[in-house]
Amino acid sequence: MNEEARGQQDEPELLRDQVQQVLRHRVLVAGGLAAGLLAGTWYAVGSAPSYESSGEVLVRAATINPYAATGISVDKQINIGSERQTAAGNAVAERAARRLGRDPGDVGDLQRHLQVTNPPDTLVLKFSYVADTPGAAAQGANAFAQAYLDYREKQTAGTVATMVKGYQNQLDPLTRQREDLLKQIDRLQGDTEKSTVLAAQANLLSQITQLTNSISELKALDTNPGYVTVTAEPPTKAEGLGTPLLIALGGVLGLALGLLGAWLRMIFDPAARSAETVARALRAPVLGVLPKAPEEPLLALDGAPAEQYRSVAFRLAYDRHFADRRRLLVVEPGGEGTTAAAVAANLTACFAETGTAALLVEADLRRPHLAGRLPQAPGTRAGRAGVLAADGDPWPGGRLLTVDAGESGTFELVPGTRVPHVARTLTSAATTRLIDQADAPNTTVVVLAPPVLSYADALALVDRVDGVVVVCDPRTTARTALERIRELIDGAGGQVLGAVLHPARPARRGRRRAAAAPAAPPRERELPTGTVTRDTLSSGTR
């Protein structure tokens, strides 16, 4: 399978992982949903209901015969856009205010509640009015419709009166001139002069007849500007989405904002948060996830934690890189290393349960504490381990302790001891020979080191241990910290075998509990001077 096909198969997994990470921020999602529901409820309950009623008016031009194809008309062509502006203007609003019994100063408020629209390809104006009550909405729409018709009729009547007056002003001089011509005709005796005056009279009479006809047609005009085709009626329900829908809409918007906040929190959250993110950062599998048990002892002898440790140990046993050398370094990214100590001790007990000679080396020489927290094996005798005494190095204190792991058997512990020069001690030949005990058949060495990002002690041991297990809490460990650990281990010549995840533990409470009721320290037993051999390690293993 090529890389492109593999990438396409990984896309659904990455998307599923992102969705799961978003849903982990339940507080943000639930907070957004609650805020949206509260906002929707507040808006639905706090806002006053509004009612809208509409009336329609058919606009027409003033004409003598509205059914004739042609005829005299004051308005040659109706511009419905201009009519819509007129209907929404101040002049119509003032007339509507008087009809509603409102003060003329309320014209602006009335216009804010009015909307005049024109359905496409019609000469119809639709008056929509919004009010707090159904009756007020219907009254407002009807008042504006009638006010518009009254205003249009008054404007048309005024135009007709102006035109009639103009024609009359032209007709009056012509009438007086005609009367003068009639008097001249009566006085004239000659046929020639009389025929000339008669011709002038005929021309004047034609003009008088034309003006008289125009005045008659204007006076016969139907000045009705239109008709109310739909009378506004009180609405039966309020406008808007309604209380249930507003609350639901607020919840949807709040949930969307909550998811957006969770997504942004996921994007800018430096913590790994999930096992998949830890695996990608370390480029190694997650070997196990420990259950949340902050009060458990250092050694988990039974129950779910013990089974989880056994699962991790078996996965490591079948890892080819670990099986070749059987050396394991357990570290934490930062902190105090308390969880790494529990993982190291329990993995050592699991290896001892398989019948191998297991040795736990506490390489934390700055804060050693395993000797006082692990139970002693009964029937063992105290002694000194000469493994490092031959080289004169003080660590690990010349002691080799046998730890009782219950049904898992026993394993050997080389406890840590405070030394003045930690780096020189960890890189000494004696430390190398101690770790090299894993080269003996059927032997496993587990090394516990301090947090890898706090001290360089773990890196000093990587080239001799090779296999590293990182113990971390993904909710408090940054992705960049895990990537830094992988780079450091790769640069030191080692390899990250996997990660063990655990929930956050109250470290201070654990320290107080350990100090208040410490476990009985393991007993020391005498060993011959020299190096630790496989027979020495196997002697304390069941």
Automatic annotation (TrEMBL):
Entry keyword Electron transport: no
SUPFAM superfamilies assigned: P-loop containing nucleoside triphosphate hydrolases (SSF52540)
Keywords carried by this UniProt record: Coiled coil, Membrane, Transmembrane, Transmembrane helix
Protein name: Lipopolysaccharide biosynthesis protein
Sequence ranges of Basic residues compositional bias: 505-514
Sequence ranges of Polar residues compositional bias: 530-542
Segments forming a coiled coil: 164-191
Highest classification ranks of the organism: Bacteria, Bacillati, Actinomycetota, Actinomycetes, Kitasatosporales
Residue ranges of the TM segments: 245-264
Region ranges (Disordered): 505-542
Family matches, as InterPro entries: Bact_polysacc_biosynth/exp (IPR050445), P-loop_NTPase (IPR027417)
Species this chain originates from: Streptomyces tropicalis
